[in-house]
Every structure is written in structure tokens, then in C-alpha cells.
Amino acid sequence: MSYLVYVAIFGTVSVIFLWLRDARIFLRTGLPGYRKAAYWGVAYGALASLGFQVTWFMPDYEILGLGLILGALYLQVNRKKEKIWSGEGTPERFLGSVQRKRANKR
């Protein structure tokens, strides 16, 4: 087993983490940019998982698998989303902590 398998594991986990973070932000804010990012995150997570499968089961093509993971990570990060943070720190941004929007404003 090559060290690139560990890189593939980290990349796949990163893509899935970003997908779940976008889904959490959408559920808290309801913003349409994060809605699309959460929907597309399913496809990017599947692409990253496919890349991990290629890296794990076909050692001769592990560079191809890493390319798939890198492509999924690139597409996940470069989606157009609204600006939601103004003065929060790194831990809040990393975890996707945002204020909930009230559904019934009076």
C-alpha cells in the first residue's frame, strides 16, 4: 500500500466534510447558493468516493484516482455562494456556524 492511499483518504474525507458543512449552512440560513452547493456536494462526494475506490483497488492507476479526488475538491470549493461571515473566527467558519434565520418574522 502506497502513501498515496492516505492522501486519497484525506481528500475524500475533506470533500464529504465540505458537502456536510454546506448542507448545514443551507439548513440554518436557507440561502440558494448553499442549497445548490449542498445538492452538488452529493455528486462531488460520489466522484471523490470513486477516486478513492480507484486508488484503493487499482494500485497501478492511483494517480487517476487522486486526479478524480482533486477534481471533486476543486469543483466543491469553486461554487458561487453568498457571503455569510463578517467577523467570525476560524473555528466558526471551519464548522459552518451561522445564525439561524427565523422562519416566522413578526
Briefly summarize what is shown:
With 106 residues, the protein is mainly alpha-helical.
Structural descriptors:
106 residues; mainly alpha
Give the topology:
Layout lengths: L3 H26 L2 H26 L4 H16 L12 H6 L11
Report the biggest beta sheet as strand number plus sense, adding barrel if it closes.
none
- Report the order of strands and helices: HHHH
Tally of separate helices? 4
The helix/strand class is mainly alpha
Per DSSP E runs of 2 or more residues, the count of β-strands stands at 0
End-to-end Cα distance: 60 Å
Task: Provide structural commentary.
With 106 residues, this protein is mainly alpha-helical. It contains four helices and no strands. α1 packs antiparallel against α2, α1 runs parallel beside α3 and α2 runs antiparallel to α3. The protein is elongated, with a radius of gyration of 16 Å. The mean pLDDT is 89.
